[in-house]
DNA sequence: TATGTGTAGATCCTTTGTTC
DNA sequence: GAACAAAGGATCTACACATA
């Protein structure tokens, strides 16, 4: 019993230590992901193209050189958590009685009754009433309406096409046939005659609306892309400046060069030490560096 | 203050899909 | 069919909060 417990503890200790995402890392992650989606890194089936996580890993490493975030497990895990959260909020918003508060960036519900009845059947939604979720709008661009169900991400135009498809499904009353139709190309679909419906005018209007919305999103995405570039460049510059500054400080203290190199390694790996270092007198700085090196 | 409990989310492992 | 990457489920852990 005791032995088993010990080996279990040893196994636990062997595991990689748990890392916590900072707000900045999370924001950067979502922005990068959003950018990749606009560049077409998402497949029709809803999954991301191979190598996407590695690209995100590299981008995050560029922004936060000492963050140590890896495609696996960190990015994998974050992707999963955000997808789940998005799924919960999306499901709520698709029900009547729920709405999105654009100012507070949270879900609002019409009445306590509606809320209680919903959480009774959706335990995972507990705690999401008025809980701020500022990433929701970005995640909507990333996951679209497919949430976590593995369907392809949908653009507004796709959504309208879905509506049209659903009209056909209703007409035929046969989902299997509709699936065949959706998986086939237009040439095969056109061989089937669709009954003209009054709702076609509405669909056409929606289609036009969706197209203009798509154009608007394209422009917005271009701006996001530019912003990401600026953020990455500025973060690189800041990091570079900081490293140069620390190096100058260390060499100024007349510490041997090899000690400066070791100290710089430790200090840049532990961002919290930078502010402490800067707040100290020269004499204390030397002590601080020596102390860090001893604990290395 | 110490301990117990619940929860969010990080990690591990297996399955599934894609590419060559 | 092998290799690789993503997705999904199971498990574990850090943290917050409640209670004695």
From TrEMBL:
Superkingdom, taxonomy of origin:
Eukaryota
One Pfam annotation reads: Myb_DNA-bind_3
Q: Where is this region: Disordered?
A: 173-204
Task: List each copy of the Myb/SANT-like domain by range.
Answer: 21-118
Regions of biased composition (Low complexity) lie at: 179-190
Q: Write the protein's name.
A: Myb/SANT-like domain containing protein
Query: Which species is this record about?
Result: Trema orientale
